[in-house]
Write a structure and sequence with these properties.
Layout: H1 2-23, H2 26-45, H3 51-79, H4 83-88, H5 94-108, H6 110-122, H7 131-153, H8 159-175, H9 188-191, H10 198-209, H11 217-241
Helix pairs in contact: 1-5, 2-3, 3-5, 3-6, 3-7, 3-8, 3-10, 7-10, 7-11, 10-11
Length: 247
């Protein structure tokens, strides 16, 4: 069983991740266009003062967009290509399917991730002391947003709604929360309720560990625990309550 699942994860990652890069690299540039445009605008408007926030925010945005873009992919694979129907007849379950698509999208977006890591190193945002913590942070973010994407995709009735919903969620949850700007710009009465959003929790934690914002230890712990619990909760809900078999 484990060998079958490992083989599925590897095959699906290559099939839907690497092959997508080879067949349509222009789409890699497309999903990078918004974060890079925001990075450029922030650099120009703030004369470089907030460029480090834009770099961290761009990395968070790329990872979050990965998860939310699963909505369009999953709806297409479920309603058009009927791949999900084939998997239902095997021992592959929804958890394996989520992991396969998440790894495939991570490989697909690796050029963007590498670009932002290089920028983070150049601008001394990423160091040996915070690298592991930042890696854990964005991994949990990818896990939680992918789980949300899977659950919502199982409810979408038509393919044309999938891509629109994915784009809407990506825009709202990476622009309104303090992803590209210091979370301290918001009053405490506002950014505390926004912690229920994975992108907010990830941004607060990443801004703190990279010393972009003077963040208390309590806030670091709270934001990390919220992101961790959301990752576990959303994954459980997506596996337990998503519509795996068509009626």
């Amino acid at each position: 069983m484990r060998v079958l699942r490992s083989s599925f994860l590897l095959a699906f990652t290559i099939f839907y991740g690497w092959s997508s890069i080879r067949r349509g690299f222009v789409y890699v540039l497309t999903y990078l266009s918004i974060p890079l445009a925001e990075l450029f605008l922030i650099y120009i408007i703030t004369r470089g003062d907030f460029v480090k926030f834009a770099i961290v925010g761009g990395l968070i945005s790329v990872m979050a967009n990965n998860g939310f873009s699963l909505i369009g992919d999953l709806v297409f694979l479920r309603l058009e290509s009927r791949l999900q129907d084939l998997l239902v007849a095997t021992s592959i379950g929804p958890s394996d399917y989520i992991m396969g698509l998440m790894l495939a999208n991570l490989l697909y977006s690796s050029p963007g991730v590498i670009l932002y890591i290089m920028l983070a190193v150049i601008y001394h945002v990423l160091t040996l002391t915070n690298f592991i913590l930042l890696l854990i942070d964005v991994t949990l973010l990818l896990f939680s947003t992918s789980s949300i994407g899977f659950f919502l995709a199982s409810l979408v009735p038509h393919t044309r709604y999938g891509w629109g919903l994915a784009g809407l969620l990506s825009s709202i949850l990476t622009i309104i929360p303090p992803v590209f700007y210091p979370y301290t710009f918001l009053p405490k009465s506002l950014y505390i309720p926004l912690l229920i959003l994975p992108t907010t929790a990830s941004a607060i934690f990443s801004q703190g560990i990279t010393n972009l914002v003077n963040t208390s230890v309590e806030m670091l712990v709270v934001s990390f625990l919220v992101l961790l619990l959301e990752s576990i909760l959303f994954f459980f809900l997506s596996v337990r309550f998503s519509r795996w078999r068509e009626r």
